[in-house]
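anyone else get weird line breaks when pasting these?? whatever heres mine. first is seq + tokens for prot A
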Amino acid sequence: MVGEARMVLVTGATGGIGTAVCHQLAGSGYPLVLAARNEAKLKTLSDELTGDGHVWLQLDMTNDQSIRQFGEELAARRITLDGVVLMPPQAHSTNDPMPGADAWRALFQNCFIGPLEVLKAAIDRMNPDPVNGRRAKIVIISGISSAQVLGRYATSNVLRCAWIGEAKTLAFALGARGIHVNTLSLGGTLSPWYREGIEKRADAVGITFEQRLAEETANIPLGKYGEPAEVAVAVEGLLSRFSDHMTGLNIMHDGGFTRSY
């Protein structure tokens, strides 16, 4: 439980992982700013959450006008943020290591530049006071291709490394203000869309979901994929006093799959 109201922005709030994060944080007493594209889903999620003080704002991180309006709305409502959970849009899986220039421009705009503008707007609404123990925490959700190359995630390898570099840069730039920036890089996580992918792969070879899952997790030391609820607990830890002397870190949440040091 948090000792005082510490408002946290969660982008991608209505997605499989975002919803789990919101329920975890709301259950621990955090008032939330919920941000996503679909207004109906945002309202439903807000109504489902425990606790008081939640607000929702429409946000499309791939649209410059939406991002500007989002920042203006944060300021107009005089929202002060103590934390941000930033989930940038993900690039589709691809084996192509050299897409065309237009494809790269779109990928960087939608998956890096746009979300970074959202983060800048959120940082403008932070007012930490580290001398008196009030710190602000940023958690950027990434993936394990930030730590080791994955062939089927050719473009994600690049984009996620860009986020790691930006997070480290921000950690150095904002540390004196009491703003922490850490990255949580996910391995396979059983969000609804990831489960659907496993089901399709199982159907394609005529085996059960459980059999396919066992095959895919055989090379993971813990022998399993993560659950959205487990991601949510890790996010809450990084927003809490647990991380008061941690910044600029890229933390693997992958059951031990990543082999690099």
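and prot B, same format (seq, then tokens)
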Amino acid sequence: MGGLDLLSLVFGLVISLLLLRKFLLVVWWIPRNIEKQFRNQGIKGPSYKFIVGSFGELAKIYGSKAKPDEVVPPIAIGSQIKHTLIQDLLPHLHLWIKKYGKVFLYWYGPSPRVVVTDPELIKEMLNNTKSFIKAIPHPAIYDLVGDGLLFAEGEIWARHRKIISPFFTIEALKGYVQTCISSNNEMIKRWNDLILSDGPEFEVHHEFRMLTKDIIARTAFPSNFKQVDRIVELQIKQMSMLTQALRTFYIPGSRFLPTPFNIESWMLRRELEKMFRELIKSRDKSSKDNDLLGLMLSATNNEHDKGNKMSPKELMDECRIFFVAGFETTSLLVTWAFVLMGIHTEWQDKARHEVEQVLQGKPPDYDSLARLKIVNMILNETLRLYSPAPFIMKTVEKETKLGDLTIPAGIDLEIPLIAVHHDSQQWGNDVDQFNPARFSEGVVKASKHPMAFMPFTSGARVCIGMNFAMMEAKITLVMMLQKFSFVISPNYKHSPDCLVTTSPVHGAHIIFRKI
């Protein structure tokens, strides 16, 4: 062996040892050190296991649970069904909160996650946007929503929020009421025809997706409706693929491998980007800028105020997130409200009576919506039981205080809204039952702690579209209650899933009767 060969061998050995050291640091020494830091502060959780973290315990827990498509239909159980989402869908949270408390540590492989369900600590996190920033729990989520308002931070978030805010002012919302009414009227007419030809049963999740797509297209993205239809179709497919991705263990870098799943995902993303470019281009040729896309295009073309300028990529990312938020979250809120009123028809009757008293047979307007107390109670209870977005993820880039705890840099924090909304200590022993009366004195008095209810999050980063979504949902409920009575169908399977959004796996089948 020559001197050069020996040098190469030594060099290779040194590199291998350095890589091994780095590997052991990441998968053993750092996790053990973090675990020790938290245990010294009284924070416990399932013990870290080499490389796999908590996946062994998770596999045991979920191996004994029914899949979403194995859940018994509520119609077979009766109207007193308990909506036990934590026990049924997130049993690890149910068990670990009981065992370790409202703050605990678990491991996503070698990556630490701190789960926080204490409302006071959540309040502190959401109010401290500089220390606790948004985390992306899985790279596939970025493909769906991009780097827009949902995940932007600091100056970028503030600039985007300023540009978009005029679309969501009270005066702007008042202007969208008639559009919402027109879209609902078209759906009602179509339903009346379908009831005569095909029967009275509808799968309402699909129907309300189409309704909210129509409303978001008319108010925020007035353009070619065929483009809008295709974008929504592609994003629904993308959400389905995201759900598949979240069910598998993610190996860093694996999304760049040319697997059949990844190739399909890449093609889907490219087609969506093409559709958004065409949508933006066709809208750019029209004149008015008072819709959401128009406001963002004005910012993109703004050469006079570069501090409020939006780049073409930023524009596309905002289109992505507002399409998803615009049609999916609102359609889920309305879908679950109809499911719950279809089971608990006594609340449907109360809401209809209120609508008759307030509106006297007239279409709703913005001011009359505020007087519909029972309708609002039903929507809030729906949001509590079936929050469209079940989780908030945060991360800390440097060591940060949270209450009496010291959170090391690089730790992800998980706020399971669904667990907070189903906490019997906050909501009482009927926590898993549909009881809109708990909101009879408003949101603040509904639970022991005001932060126990935050379906649109809270603090500075509260969902910008909250009032739009609630207005849209109220108009739909009001107009449907004026025209139809309804009950849950015997064909309905109660099979919610909450990996991406809290959605009905097998749809929501409801039987309607014209009034």
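btw re prot B: Residues 3-40 form the longest helix (38 residues). Residues 71-78 have pLDDT under 50 and may be disordered.
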